[in-house]
What does this fold into?
Amino acid sequence: MTIDSKKQPTILSFVKDLPNLFSLAGLACTLLAIYFSIIGVYYAAMIGIIWAVGFDWADGLVARKMKGRTGTDSAFGGQLDVLIDIVSYGVTPAILLMSYGKFEPIFLIGAFIILSTSAIRLSYFSTFGLSDSKYTGLALDNNSIILVFIFILESFVSEGTFTIILYISAVTLAALNVSQIKTPKLSGNPINVYILATYTIAITIFYGWKLV
It folds into this structure.
């Protein structure tokens, strides 16, 4: 069965939906994180990574508070979130790992593990959703929250040591993403969104200071 095109909204009509604008703002932060990872300005990349999570969580909070959103709006927003998540939580950390590892071939293995597990995890979630209000496997956004904190160690240990720490941490998180552990949906609680906002500001100040 085909849908009458005259009854379908235009593609760009969804851009004006506020939650989608938040999602796209997060994508912009992700692009900056990728750019700064490639050129080796890792502190700036950390700021982009954590702001991407902030906008990701905020779009859900905004969507739940808005009235008058249709089922189509929600479905489109959900699809947009998933597509952005694979870039924010799959592509970005993979590029970060490869860049910090000077693009040595061995880092391709870790990058592939990160990227493939994130794709598998998102596909699983799209198929089965939440179980008893909990995720199966560690939610991908937690990876970014943890990694930007772990990156603080980069200032206190040698580059070689931190390369090993980053590699092991990223791959371990990837394994947890596709594990059978049950984790709560932290972004579903408004209080957690405000806690993340505070964390995001603190991380921004710390890494911003390191950039000066």
Summary: The chain has one domain: 15-211. The beta strands are 134-136, 182-184. Residues 15-211 form a domain with the Four Helix Bundle (Hemerythrin (Met), subunit A) fold (CATH 1.20.120.1760). The chain is about 70% helix and 5% strand.
